[in-house]
Amino acid sequence: MINLKINNIQVKAKEGSSVLEAASSAGFDVPAMCNYNGLEQFTSCMVCVVKDRNGGALMPSCAVKAQEGMDIVTEDEEIFEARKTALELLLSEHSGDCEAPCRIACPAFMNIPLMNRHIAQEDLQSAFEVVIKDIALPRVLGRICPAPCEGACKRKAVDQPVAVCLLKRFAADNFKFIAQPSKPDKNKAVAIIGAGPAGLAAAFFLQSAGIKAEVFDNHEKPGGSLRYDLDEKELDKAVLDQEIEVIKNCGVTFHQNSNIDSKRFEELIKNYEAVIVATGNYTDKIGSWGLENNGKTLLVNKSTYLTNIEKVFAVGNVNRSGKLAIRSLAQGKEVAKIVIELLQEGVIKGKSRKFNSVLGKLISEEFPEYLNEASSDNRYEPGNDGFSLEVARKEAARCIHCDCRKPENCKLRNYAEEYDVSKKRFAYTKRKPVKKHIKTDLVVYEPGKCIKCGICVRITAKQKEKFGFTFIGRGFDVEIGAPFNRSLEAALEKTAREVAEACPTGALCGF
Amino acid sequence: MISTIDNIINITGTGKEAVISILQAIQKEYNYLPEEALERVCEITEITHAEIIGIASFYKQFRLLPAGKHFIKVCIGTACHVKGADRVYDSVKRELDIGDDEDTDSDGVFTVEKVSCLGCCTLAPVVQIDNITYGHVNPSMAKKIINDFLDNNNKAKAVRTLKPVKDELQGEIRVGLGSCCIASGSGDIKEAIEEVVYKNDLNVNIKHVGCVGMCHQVPLVEIVANKNKDSRLYAHVKPEDIKPILDAHFKPHNLFKRWKNNIESFIEKLQYEERWEGIEKYSIDVREKHVHAFLGNQLPIATEFRGIINPGDIDEYLTRGGFSGLKKAFSMKPGDVIEEVTSSGLKGRGGAGYLTGVKWQVVAEQNSDEKYLICNGDEGDPGAFMDRMLLESYPLRIIEGVIIAAYAVGASKGLLYIRAEYPLAVIRVREALDNCYERGMLGDNIMNSGFSFNLEIKEGAGAFVCGEETALIASVEGKRGFPRYRPPYPAEKGLWNKPTLINNTETFAQVPYILSKGYNKFASVGTKDSRGTKVFALAGKVNRGGLIEVPMGITIRQIVEDIGGGVQNSKRLKAVQIGGPSGGCIPHFLADKPVDFDSLEEAGAMMGSGGLVVLDETDCMVDIARYFLSFTQDESCGKCTFCRVGTKRMLDILEKLHDGKAVEKDLDELKSLAEWTKKGSLCGLGKTAPNPVLSTLQYFHDEYMAHIKGVCPTGKCKPLITYKINDKCIGCTICAQNCPVEAIAFKPHEIHEIDVDECTKCDICRQECPSEAVYVE
What we know:
The structure holds two protein chains of two kinds.
Chain A: E1 2-6, E2 9-13, H1 19-25, E3 49-52, E4 58-60, E5 71-73, H2 77-91, H3 101-105, H4 112-120, H5 124-134, H6 138-144, H7 148-152, H8 164-173, E6 189-193, H9 197-208, E7 212-216, H10 225-228, H11 237-250, E8 253-255, H12 262-271, E9 274-277, H13 284-287, E10 312-314, H14 325-345, H15 367-371, H16 389-396, H17 411-418, E11 437-439, E12 443-445, H18 455-462, E13 470-472, E14 479-481, H19 488-491, H20 496-502, E15 508-510
Parallel strand pairs in A: 1-5, 6-7, 6-9, 7-8, 9-10
Antiparallel strand pairs in A: 1-2, 3-4, 3-5, 11-12, 12-15, 13-14
Helix pairs in contact in A: 4-5, 4-8, 4-16, 6-8, 9-14, 18-20
Chain B: H1 2-12, H2 19-30, H3 35-44, H4 49-56, E1 70-75, H5 78-82, H6 85-95, E2 110-115, E3 127-129, E4 132-134, H7 142-154, E5 171-176, H8 179-183, H9 186-200, E6 204-209, E7 221-225, E8 231-234, H10 242-249, H11 255-271, H12 275-282, E9 283-284, H13 289-296, H14 314-319, H15 324-330, H16 334-344, H17 356-365, E10 372-377, H18 386-393, H19 395-409, E11 413-418, H20 423-438, E12 454-459, H21 469-476, E13 500-504, H22 505-517, H23 519-523, E14 533-540, E15 546-551, H24 556-563, E16 573-578, E17 584-587, H25 597-602, E18 611-616, H26 621-635, H27 641-658, H28 664-680, H29 684-688, H30 691-699, H31 701-708, E19 723-725, H32 734-738, H33 764-768, E20 774-776
Parallel strand pairs in B: 1-2, 5-6, 10-11, 10-13, 11-12, 14-18
Antiparallel strand pairs in B: 1-3, 3-4, 5-7, 7-8, 8-9, 14-15, 16-17, 16-18, 19-20
Helix pairs in contact in B: 1-2, 1-3, 15-19, 15-22, 16-17, 16-19, 18-20, 19-22, 26-27, 27-28, 28-30
């Protein structure tokens, strides 16, 4: 055994083990991408750099053997910057989107491409689950949303955007959703002022998470602007009623015709764990409740929706006038999450979006690469009743799957998030065109997302593939691929699943 | 094809390590690597498809696409670059009508390639067509050299047999046959000499000598007549000068020939009145001041007997004291040999300057059944040709040094790893090796010492990174030239995981001297921490370029002014680029810095392998930084992130500067990225690649700032300049006639104009204009 110090703690390491192994078996998390269990180390990504206090130079921990008397530091400012710079360099040549741009454009961050894929496979339950995860009133929104998602759709460059909004309506209309009534702690309740889209969404997500939500609204019926600002032509109120019924069935309590004045407001603050102001448009009356404002809107923390009063949050049009129901709905969801965390963990975390690599508009030579996986039909336009299953399936199949297949377990993305990386830092040149190689139903290879760590090369060599993968060329232009331009089928006869699993990025992914 | 491949493999063997040799043989056969051939290799050897493509696409020597019948290699080494190699390249491609993304003409006759350095820096810009090298090429000469090549190619060479030397020699004729000499035409000179000697039946010894170092004077011929032992050196000799020169020194051997010769000379005299003038012009007396200045400040140790000995002649080497160092070593214990080398203070000449004796000690201490030795001759720096010259001219000295080292560390097998672009070096070394084996200097029981050692040549395949020792080892093992993290150092775990001593060629060339003359003699030269001498390739904007060997501690000014005879064309010295892509630019105001390991590093450069390129006031430092970065970026193996992507992003910023599109913030990022690349790269290539950027940023910040404002002060960055004609124009139409893109209208007797939209900034008009009317703005 070897005795060394890691982050000032004396640890023992097995003879011949690397500093990376020593650190991780001592419980220190050192990021690493090109290292893979059971394969000889290659040392290319350079994100695993650490320092030995004796000497102080940065060194790749995967390549350095643990030695007696080492005094390793796995984290400090210089190491952080080195890893960050390495990740930024890797991302500067990363051609791909983490999330589809439609999802990024959606204020509710709904996983649109995933919904599309479920519809295309006629898995309507899964499709609905994707929708309801982020959108509390999907049937309503499926009718009134101006669909910023479709404006961002990558398919637009090829022909027309995917009819996302109508597909969402289809998903919501065609699945009978029965909310499970939750039985929350009666003594811990959150007051929500206003039963418009923001208030309804906040109430729905709080109640679904097991927190009692009580809505105080000054109208006769819940719905706010959805009910009172839209005429029947714009929105069939029966649909709204049905959606509100679902929320009521969850267990949300509605106090209609409640007139909140400053006295009542103070009582709410006193009696509830948190108060969410979702009144819709700002009025002077709201301004008199003691909430900080500029005479037109309330002033809140943009990340946490917290007002100047402790435990009081505000969302929706009261913060920023405008008539975008989906935005209010999204904020209702976000504030619910923040309040849930406050009540469950005692901290206000604020909203956050994970690091996202953005490819940008498709260029024509990339169209065929994407259309390989999609229907090449033009956009389907349904009648007033929305899509039939048959047409919905066809329309959903137009989605080109531009989102990454490893959005959760891509190391590059996760480290980029952890090291607060900017993808734009080294964006000096145009990206390389996207290429997608597909081994039917098994694996997709996108060289533009490859970090040239060679794990796949080592795996195919180890498993004695006839062709396998190899490094082609050298330097910045080096690519990994099959020798002699062989197909993926030929290259990965035995190892398709294994390499997809092992690839640290979305370059090689399973279906 | 299959049988050809099978024959190749019969020779190379079927092991994985043979892959590079196999590919070299296939390429030699077909000029490229046909897929069918590679498939066959995979079928009958241990080499897999993935490996063969991985390797074929890694090394520059290999082509996967068919090539033309002839290769035109345009050297873009540093010395050539500063003298306009890019424009030469463009003009050659234009001449052959080859598109931007192509490299072969439509008839499949010529393939045009850029090559990082042909090692003929004193003849810059240099273009090589197959085996013929053209020096001092300018863009307007593209057509001329291509035609000349085609003419020559069609001519059959006369074959002549010379009689063996007999009786008393009339004297000796020494012809320099280093690559520079050959490139400048010494092969033709040699033929001319042989012809005269044959015709006149002269009884002289025609001797090929290695590089004299005076590459700025090539081709050189030295005549030593026996009568008076007087030696006479002729510079810039042309084949037609040979007869008069030889006539002046030697009388034909037999009477009839003498008489015939007289008549012929008489007739010739009638025809060529000025015959003597020409020769006088070329004659240099070694006592002459500038020759003395060039040679007098030098101290030949690695290059001892330069211009005197025949590189491959083992007898001559022996009579001049050759192998006495080895004899001495064999009389000592290996440990004492190491002690001797350590005491001499010799540091590795490959760049980093590690103490040679200490390295030997580490290898000697390893407990292993087998140890290897590698002589690193993979010199790839653009603007450096020391290793090439040493290998071509002093192969025996290098071999002697290698054997001494092998004895000291206990190595039983050795390799001379020689760069692919140095075919002549390979020939010379092979000849020397054969001679050594024949004389028992290699093989079993060398010189009855009981020590056995085998040495062979391994040819590189064109990858700068293989100068890095771990990459070199990977390459010898038949893999892609990926370096790996050190430690373990090759001294502990090297070739085939055995302890391996790797030293640079020049280091080995210094060793025999230390042994034969004693460590004290060597240590008395140089400075406290940098002992002995250093060989430099002096080139660029200097009057007298060449291979020089100087004591450590000499100042840059002494090198440039005294040895180099100052900057060309009376321009002012701007900087000296030392150490190639790993080194830096030392500005003129630091020219009094001594040249040694520490001072150079302190100034932001490094010894590197010893390229020394002189830059004058017309050189753009942003362009120089961009030049080196594009070199290292191109040569990066592509393994570690900082080098693979970091150098590319640095180059992106330099391109922005070059195009006048950079902003001040880009300079901060450039510096920051340079520092991270230095800190974060895996091997020496990446760690030193930022040096040219950092040193120019430090010393020439103003020039970077000027580029941000859209101005290239020296007018070198093409996107920032325009060509114009002023009223000095005499209307001679030469510019219009020479313009390759018809950007100048033909208007006799009028002031000409350049159409800026058509102009490709090839510089031909400016070079051709007789009245200096073309200028750059």
